[in-house]
Amino acid sequence: MSEKIYCGRGTAARGDPVSTDSETRRYPLYQLYFYLTDECNLACRHCWIAPKYQNATKATSFLPIDLFVSIIREAQPLGLMTVKLTGGEPLLHPQFAEMVDIVKREGLKLVLETNGTLMASEIAEAIASCKNTFVSVSLDGTDATTHEWVRGVPGSYDTACAGVRHLADAGLRPQVIMTVMRRNRDQIGEMVRLAEWLGAGSVKFNLLQPTSRGKQMHHSGEALEIRELIALGQWVERDLAPTTTLNLIYDHPPAFRPLSRMFGDHGDGCSVCGIFSILGVLSDGSYALCGIGESLSEMIFGHARTDRLVDIWEHTPMLGEIRGGLPEKLEGVCGRCLMKGRCLGSCLAQNYYRSGDLWEPYWFCEEAERAGIFPETRKVGRGAGAEEHLGTLVSEPPS
Ligand code: SF4
Ligand code: SF4
After folding, report:
1. How far apart are CA 49 and CA 255, in angstroms?
2. What is the mean pLDDT of the chain?
3. Domain ranges of the chain
4. Which atom of ligand 1 sits closest to the CA of residue 115?
5. Mean pLDDT of 167-191
6. Average pLDDT estimate for 186-215
7. Cα 354 from Cα 228, distance rounded (Å)
8. How many Å apart are CA 171 and CA 182, to the nearest integer?
9. CA atoms of 2 and 84, how far apart (whole Å)
10. Which residue(s) pair with 175 in the sheet?
11. pLDDT at 24
12. Which helix (H) or strand (E) holds 146?
């Protein structure tokens, strides 16, 4: 799925148009998301990509490095600034270190999403030598029992923690990502302490998405109820954040965040999907909206061996439909939301995955609306000032 970027104060959600004679080239391609392999050495219960599990340290199916280079070359004239390496587990790629060198040589920003288990000190140093690097490592528990229950592989807690430590020792401030669920909700505060101890720079608390494997967790009651999620978010932002110097990000939609936390002199912005400026590259060289192309073939737009990137970027009908329709065509609670111009319905890929409809509202806000706890003051025609409403939801720390 196209991932969210944190949009600072006053930053437009939609990419700035590229100055060009061509009427069609209105959107810069700032970021490529490379899904380097469709394999993973972990088997997480909540994974939305659901890669093939393999118990080895190198992938057997992976993006050829010549395609990686040629795609970057084609993307640079379109505006490329950032390369994200993800997967599956990207460090399984046998030429991962060479790819990092290429990103460094081209002066691009490197973003890496990893489970951390294969992060050695040498590779951490190579990553740290790139310009403007951002690395996130997933930790879903503060003890081996919890983390490995989620991640499916014994020993993965110690190796993931060591991975965060190697990155910190190399001079980076990695982000720890924790997906919040019933099993680990009581460890949220401890996770911040663990992240501090490991040398992380921030902690992001992700929602358990009802997509792919995560759908089963929602059905089995492992996901938290909407009221619990909202109350947890309030607790994290109001009570936990002041106890740490780390930046804490709770990934609930902006309709549930106080305006003062997002805007004004002390605001930290709001998370925005970069969908207008991102394209995914799958491990077989296919172009896709994002990693959702691994699950839905209609989200695959072409192949790097046979199609020119500029043609994919400028003439794919679904990309045109998204650019022309977001946010105005959003339906349901998203269509009535004051935040839709920034939030863009949170994640269009998630929304599409659930229903096959691009304009479907985001499940979180839809559930809140059904439960009667979506802030009225964030709806078109009701005006701003949702803090009073949000204040009526009891904010309780995890027991
Ligand atoms: S480590 Fe990441 S890609 Fe691998 S199974 Fe877990 S969530 Fe999925
Ligand atoms: S209702 Fe939709 S647009 Fe509004 S905050 Fe929620 S997900 Fe975003």
Report:
1. 27
2. 90
3. 4-278
4. 1
5. 98
6. 96
7. 22
8. 34
9. 11
10. 136, 202
11. 47
12. helix 144-151
pLDDT digits (tens, 9 = 90+) for 283-317: 999 999 999 888 899 999 999 999 999 999 999 99
Whether residue 230 is predicted with pLDDT greater than 90 in this model: the reply is yes
Judge if the beta carbon of residue 339 lies within 6 A of ligand 2: yes
Query: Ligand 2 within 6 A of 334 CB?
Result: yes
Three-state DSSP state, 362: coil
Contacts of 166-171 spanning 24+ positions with Cβ under 8 A: 166/119, 166/120, 166/121, 166/124, 167/116, 167/119, 167/124, 167/127, 167/128, 167/135, 167/137, 167/199, 168/198, 168/199, 168/200, 169/121, 169/124, 169/199, 170/121, 170/124, 170/125, 170/127, 170/128, 171/128
Q: Quick check: CB of 241 below 6 Å from ligand 2?
A: no
Q: Are strands 270-273 and 247-250 parallel, antiparallel or unpaired?
A: unpaired
Yes or no: say if 259 and 382 are a contact pair by the CB < 8 Å rule: no
284 alpha carbon to ligand 1 midpoint, in Å? 18
Q: Are 255 and 374 in contact (CB under 8 A)?
A: yes
Q: Which of 9-23, 94-108, 269-283, 377-391 has the lowest mean pLDDT?
A: 9-23
Exposure string over 121-158, b if 16+ CB within 10 A, otherwise e: eebbebbbebeebbbbbbbbbbebebbbebbebeebbe
Q: Which residue has tokens 């939305």? A: 48
For atom 8 of ligand 1, the residue with the nearest CA is 47
- Residue 243 pLDDT > 80: yes
Nearest protein CA to atom 3 of ligand 1, as residue: 88
Is the domain spanning 4-278 CATH 3.20.20.70? The answer is yes
The alpha carbon of 1 and the centre of ligand 2 are apart by a number of angstroms equal to 17
Question: pLDDT digits over 83-106, tens only?
Answer: 999 999 999 999 999 999 999 999
**Is residue 90 lining ligand 1, measured as CB closer than 6 Å?**
no
Any ligand 1 atom below 6 A from CB of 88: yes
**DSSP code at position 238:** I
For residue 319, pLDDT beyond 80: yes
Question: Which pair of tokens denotes residue 195?
Answer: 């992240």
Half-sphere exposure of 332 (CA within 13 A, CB side): 18
Q: Which residue has the higher pLDDT, 391 or 312?
A: 312
Our answer on whether the CB atom of 89 is closer than 6 Å to any ligand 1 atom is yes
Ligand with the closest atom to the CA of 273:
2
Ligand 2 proximity of 254 Cβ (cutoff 6 Å): yes
Q: 172 and 133 in contact (C-beta within 8 Å)?
A: yes
Q: What is the pLDDT of residues 265-289, one digit of tens each?
A: 666 767 677 899 999 999 999 999 9
